[in-house]
From TrEMBL:
This is Putative RNA-binding Zn ribbon-like protein. It comes from the Bacteria. Residues 172-216 form the Zinc finger CGNR domain. SUPFAM superfamilies: Jann2411-like. PANTHER family: BLL6575 PROTEIN. InterPro entries: ABATE (IPR010852), ABATE_dom_sf (IPR023286), Znf_CGNR (IPR021005). Gene3D superfamilies: Jann2411-like domain. Coiled coil: none annotated.
């Protein structure tokens, strides 16, 4: 992963589905981005491990399968990107601070829901309900991703549907693009709901420096 707008690639979303949305920088609605962190199956694999979507065992299984069948790897990447854009299209209109890029392609939230649902039902078809005896809570475990080739998109879409169903909308924010932010989505879990930036050390600091520069220019010219 190379450096984009963010000096170091940060995990700030507070949910795997938001972290997925934030693999593009800046994140503008329907607009072109300078940097995409998921341009190859290898990048997707490394990112999935980094956000702890998969453990080491899953990593080897996926990596082995993808190496044997590059077509399946490309398919999984394609599915992941479709899920990423669908999650963004569904959530961005409800995120405080999100803006639509001037050159934004109008994509309906309705079709985004449909795309998400299709991916989710395919993932459900590849999931298994396995009985677990001797437990205090629940009698079965839901195993998502029984097919290593599609394990990553299957887990992501399952997480995405869970988020879409349960997200606290007052916590859903976008790093403010109009103030120099990157448009990444995150959950503001601060007690007073005061988080404005994806990361203060990142967009927050950059905006502060810019404001300071504007102030100096203003003082010089006035
Ligand atoms: Zn940001």
């Amino acid at each position: 992963m190379t450096d984009g707008l963010h000096g170091a690639f940060r995990i700030v979303g507070g949910h795997p589905a938001l972290d997925l949305v934030n693999t593009v920088s800046p994140r503008l609605r329907g607009g072109a981005s300078e940097h995409d962190y998921l341009t190859s199956p290898a990048e997707l694999l490394a990112w999935s491990r980094k956000v702890e979507l998969i453990d080491l065992r899953d990593f080897s299984a996926v990596e082995g399968t993808w190496r044997m069948a590059p077509v399946l790897a490309a398919k999984a990447l394609g599915a992941t990107l479709e899920i990423r854009e669908a999650v963004y299209d569904v959530l961005a209109p409800r995120a405080d601070g999100a803006v639509v890029a001037a050159d934004g392609v109008k994509r309906g939230a309705g079709s985004a829901f449909e795309r998400l649902m299709l991916r989710w039902s395919a993932a459900a078809a590849r999931s298994m309900l396995i009985p677990v005896p001797d437990r205090d809570r629940g009698v079965a475990e839901l195993v998502i991703g029984t097919s290593p080739a599609q394990l990553i998109p299957d887990r992501l879409v399952t997480a995405a549907v869970e988020l879409v169903r349960t997200v606290e909308l007052r916590q859903l924010r976008a790093c403010p693009v109009q103030d120099g932010g990157c448009g990444w989505l995150f959950l503001d879990r601060s007690r007073n709901g005061s988080r404005r930036w994806c990361a203060m050390e990142d967009c927050g600091t950059r905006a502060k420096i810019r404001k300071l520069g504007e102030r100096r220019r203003y003082l010089r010219t006035s």
